[in-house]
Structures are given as C-alpha cells and as structure tokens.
Amino acid sequence: MHKRLLYAGYGYMAFSAVMNYMADVLQPYLRHQRASGTETTLYCGMHSAFNFGQLIFGLTAILLLRSGSDFLSRRPGEGLAIAVIGGLLAICFAYIKFAPPKINLAVVLALLVSAAYLNI
C-alpha cells in the first residue's frame, strides 16, 4: 500500500502539472485572451516554470521508484519530498491567485504524508 500511495502522489503531481499548464498557459494563448506585453510574459513564464518544476520532480520521483531505489521510501526521501511540496505550496500562496494548483498540491501532500505514516 505504501508504494501505491507514492506512485499515486507523484503521478498525480505530474498529471496536475500538465493539466495546470494547459489551463493556465496554453488555453489563453490559443484563444488569444491575453494581449501581448510584459505582464503576459511574466504570467506565462511564472506558470510555465512552476508547472515544469512540478512535472520534473514528479517524473523524477516516479523514475526513482520504478528503478527500485528505496530512497523515497526512507525518512530522508520522504522529508525531501514533503519539503519540496511545502515550497511549491509557499510559491502558490505567494504568487498564484486561483485555487486549483493549491488544491492539487494539497492532495499530493496528503498522499505523501499518508504514505509516510504507513511506512512507520
């Protein structure tokens, strides 16, 4: 059950990063909803970097799990993952005004904390 929760958490993290990117950056760009300018560039750049970092961390964690490494199953790996999610949540609360990225990261955090609890 522990490994399944880890796969679910990191898989949902990668999936939600792709979905947030499509909703926050691609959809307004394809519909021409934002006028070109500095504000649009900063908005798209921040959301692209945030979602790309989330995607890379989720995919790297899945790759580590699939390779048989148990780093993410031990306390240092669990602590690192929870610290990364906490940092991403801090960025969300500081710079992102809408709720879906915050909710998605809270779900991932809940999955990873429950996996850590089951690994005691």
What report would you give on this structure?
This protein is mainly alpha-helical and 120 residues long. It has one domain. The protein has 4 helices and no strands. It has helices spanning 2-30, 38-66, 75-95, 100-118. Helix 1 (2-30) packs antiparallel against helix 2 (38-66) and helix 3 runs antiparallel to helix 4 (100-118). The longest helix is centred in the N-terminal third of the chain and has 29 residues, at 2-30. The chain starts with a helix and ends with a helix. The model has no long low-confidence stretch (mean pLDDT 87).
Which features does this protein show?
120 residues; elongated
**Helical content band:** over 70%
Mean pLDDT score: 87
Number of strands: 0
How many helices in DSSP terms?
A: 4
Tally of distinct domains:
1
The secondary-structure class comes to: mainly alpha
The low-confidence runs, each spanning 5 or more residues with pLDDT under 50, are none
Biggest beta-sheet profile: none
- Spatial shape: elongated
Secondary-structure element sequence? Answer: HHHH
Beta-strand residue percentage? under 5%
* Rg calc: 16 Å
